[in-house]
Amino acid sequence: MNLKTWIGAAAPLAADPGIRRIVVGGEDWRRIAEDLAAAGGRLLALWGQDAGAGYPAVFAAYATAAGLLLAELPFEAPPGDASIYPGLQDLFPFASRMQRAVYDLYGLRSTDADTRPWLRHAPDGGYEFVRVEGDGVHEIPVGPVHAGIIEPGHFRFSVVGEKVLRLEERLGFTHKGIERRFLDFDVEQGCRLAARVCGDSAVAYSWAYCRALEDRVGVEIPRRANWLRALALELERIANHLGDLGALGNDAGFAFGLTQFSRLKEGLLRATEAAFGRRYLLDTIAPGGVCGDLPAAAGAALERELAYVAAETVALRDIYDEHAGLRDRFVGAGAVAPELAARLGLTGLAGRASGQAYDLRTDLRDAPYDELRAAKCGAETGDVAARVTLRFDEVAESCRLGRRILGDLPAGGVRTNVPPPAADSLGIGIIEGWRGPVLVALAAAAGGRIRRCHPHDPSWQNWPALEHAVIDNIVPDFPLINKSFNLAYSGHDL
């Protein structure tokens, strides 16, 4: 079978014909993956569920030229020998960690399973890292506890002198049971938890959650509410990029950059608070729309702030481009060539810096981006310099989009009623967050309760690529390379 045949055999998932679902057996689970990989399809997420959600199963969501295809492989038996399924690691390398997490959580094992625990950490901390042998090779362990306030992750470097031969990560130290916690809420309340999966992507997660719910019940939210959601998403993108641009300057020994971008980010957060009532937009998006309207005066002040940020960022970009010390640290560091990025499945911001030109705002053009017409930003060199350049480009574009939204904000209401979905129904929501595509799969139970909710962060795809990006670089450049990706621990360690 080819890709067109698989999509034709799949049924539309709720109201969106661009999202289709197909239930398969083990052989077809593998064949779908092979056909999609051959046709240039991308694996967006892979997750599992246990009998408590109805029946044991694994799911895989794929992005194709025709839309999103959800493959489901159910199991009749409880976890055990009968619940081994064909692995996808050879087709999509980053699937390995997702498959390990599925096994740790649900006992469903892939045929190519790495048997080392991913989430279930041994009490004594024992873990078999891959060893690099040779003259002069030694290991540098970093973490899992770090000097700052970032969340824990263990990084094991194999080096000769200061040159990195291999990096292996071990994450999962902050597994919080978020997917289980969703079961304590009804579908409307679950939106607040979704916004707290990963604090710097609150808008992306809460919007993806609401889209999964609203599409499942066929609700069309007010046009003004959709535009306000996009405004919140772009503000979230700008704030994160400003923070990272300052931190990247600081990691390269340019404290002036940190000072200036911290100033810009603080000004934007204050303007955001004046407009929406909060600096970080954790409770802005709600099922059916947004939690409150934007007063005209607040919108005008926010528009002035975006114009100021855009102008100041242009000036700071010139300084970064002309600073010899920054160029020396950025150019060539942590490079992921387009061919390697495609093979590894690098996505989102980091992917676009390595020639992977995917952005859901332009590729899918769901409302309101079908009207806003966002411009896609990209680069080819895949190094720190490219990821810095992309952030500058995206700040400029997001400021433009934000000002366009504020200037042409439609009139009307900002929220509509969302009835509870039918029991055993499933919805998928996907939003291009600032790191990349954020996906939420939401299954309902009777009485409007949540039967299963899986939030997926693009960091699952990109953490393995960071291991490749640091090879042949020197150890002191790792903080700089790591910050240029700025991947999530919290969104990864559910």
Note the topology.
Elements: H1 3-9, E1 11-13, E2 16-23, H2 26-38, E3 42-49, E4 57-64, E5 67-74, E6 84-85, H3 95-106, E7 109-110, E8 137-142, E9 154-160, E10 163-170, H4 178-181, H5 190-194, H6 202-217, H7 223-251, H8 255-276, E11 285-286, E12 289-290, H9 296-322, H10 324-330, H11 338-344, H12 348-352, H13 360-363, H14 369-372, H15 384-407, E13 426-432, E14 437-444, E15 450-456, H16 459-469, H17 478-485
Task: Describe the structure concisely.
This protein has 494 residues and is an alpha+beta fold. It has helices spanning 3-9, 26-38, 95-106, 178-181, 190-194, 202-217, 223-251, 255-276, 296-322, 324-330, 338-344, 348-352, 360-363, 369-372, 384-407, 459-469, 478-485; strands at 11-13, 16-23, 42-49, 57-64, 67-74, 84-85, 109-110, 137-142, 154-160, 163-170, 285-286, 289-290, 426-432, 437-444, 450-456.
Task: Describe the protein's architecture and organization.
The protein is 41% helix and 17% strand. The protein has helices spanning 3-9, 26-38, 95-106, 178-181, 190-194, 202-217, 223-251, 255-276, 296-322, 324-330, 338-344, 348-352, 360-363, 369-372, 384-407, 459-469, 478-485; strands spanning 11-13, 16-23, 42-49, 57-64, 67-74, 84-85, 109-110, 137-142, 154-160, 163-170, 285-286, 289-290, 426-432, 437-444, 450-456. The longest helix is centred in the middle third of the chain and has 29 residues, at 223-251. The protein has 17 helices and 15 strands. The strands form five sheets. The protein has a five-stranded mixed beta sheet. With 494 residues, it is an alpha+beta fold. Helix 7 runs antiparallel to helix 15 and helix 7 (223-251) runs antiparallel to helix 17 (478-485). It starts with a helix and ends in a 9-residue tail after the last helix. Strand 4 (57-64) and strand 5 (67-74) form a beta hairpin. The chain has two domains: 3-110, 2-Layer Sandwich (Beta Polymerase, domain 2); 178-485, Cytochrome-c3 Hydrogenase, chain B (Orthogonal Bundle), CATH 1.10.645.
